[in-house]
Amino acid sequence: MLTAEREQQVIGLCQTLIQKQSYSGQEDGVVDRIKKAFRELGYDEVSVDNYGNVLGRIRGKRPGKVILLDGHIDTVPVPDESKWKHKPFSGQLEDGKIYGRGTSDMKGAVASMIAASAFFAADTDKNFAGEIYVSGVVHEECFEGIAARKISERVKPDYVVIGEASELNLKRGQRGRAEVVVETFGKPAHSANPHKGINAVYKMASLIRAISELEAPTHPTLGLGILELTDIKSSPYPGASVVPDYCRATYDRRLLSPDGFSKKATSSFSPHWQDCEAPASLRRSLSIRSAPTAVTTQAKQRSRPSVSDPHEKTSRTPSTNTLRSISY
């Protein structure tokens, strides 16, 4: 039962986690605070693995299934604190809302899972079947899934609940993810004589415009298959007086189908390569780079899509040795 006292415990824990800056690779302060919370709330076991993930364990008095409540504890950086109405590391409570970097993504969920598991254990006197684990995962924002796998390998859970923000709705599936890198190659020249060179950024600009007009596929449960530009770089940088001969754009691709990954992840680009004056040999092969101007794409799969049957307790992911999970 969530009493007024317990509610204040959850709020207080959330605030202290927010007040500990924890950019990816700098999660030590939050890890220490979570370890302290685990011990104060009576967890049976507290540990930190080689990656820096923090894990708490509560054992029931009877044998049974293992459930893992999972959340990452790193955040993206704050580029300019002056643009925040509330200080990003204050954890300020105002009008029933807590403000700060990582509040919803996802220190609020982590605090709630830590507290809820302990409250359940206390209310039942641990007279339940199975084990409850709560994990605080590091490096998620920059290496999604890498550190979390170590948790899964160790715990071997029967069920997983991921507390990512979902507008308080139960989510039973997740899109797959890939990183798609697009490169254009031109010819350097002095910017006083640009006609003697080929500007790779102009080539990239036309490609980006064409990609933005592509129609995204849809799935009845997973929604849109997103292809979103996340960064763009040119070389040389700073350019000073040089026409850039190289440009690189990175796209975040959210996948709806596990099959034909490489073809589907890169085929969207091929109809528009001719606009960038890429030679026919390049358009036939993603691995060829040729001068004076060329386009290449590279795709790296991060994770496959997963959708669960609402009538089953587990989700199905089309890959071998996949953890059965209930996913947010």
What does this structure look like?
The protein is of the alpha+beta class and 328 residues long. The protein folds into two domains: 4-165, Aminopeptidase (3-Layer(aba) Sandwich); 175-303, Alpha-Beta Plaits (2-Layer Sandwich). It has helices at 4-19, 28-40, 103-124, 146-155, 200-212, 261-267, 280-284; strands spanning 45-48, 54-59, 62-72, 92-94, 97-99, 129-137, 159-162, 173-174, 176-185, 218-219, 223-224, 227-235, 246-255, 294-303, 306-308, 315-316. The strands form five sheets. Strands 1-2-6-3-7 form a five-stranded mixed β-sheet, with helices on both faces. Strands 12-13-9-14 form a four-stranded antiparallel β-sheet. Strands 8-15-16 form a three-stranded antiparallel β-sheet, with no helix packed on it. Strand 10 (218-219) and strand 11 form a beta hairpin. Helix 1 runs antiparallel to helix 3. The protein is elongated and about 80 Å long.
Topology:
Elements (H helix, E strand, L loop, with lengths): L3 H16 L8 H13 L4 E4 L5 E6 L2 E11 L19 E3 L2 E3 L3 H22 L4 E9 L8 H10 L3 E4 L10 E2 L1 E10 L14 H13 L5 E2 L3 E2 L2 E9 L10 E10 L5 H7 L12 H5 L9 E10 L2 E3 L6 E2 L12
Parallel strand pairs: 3-6, 3-7
Antiparallel strand pairs: 1-2, 2-6, 4-5, 8-15, 9-13, 9-14, 10-11, 12-13, 15-16
Helix pairs in contact: 1-2, 1-3
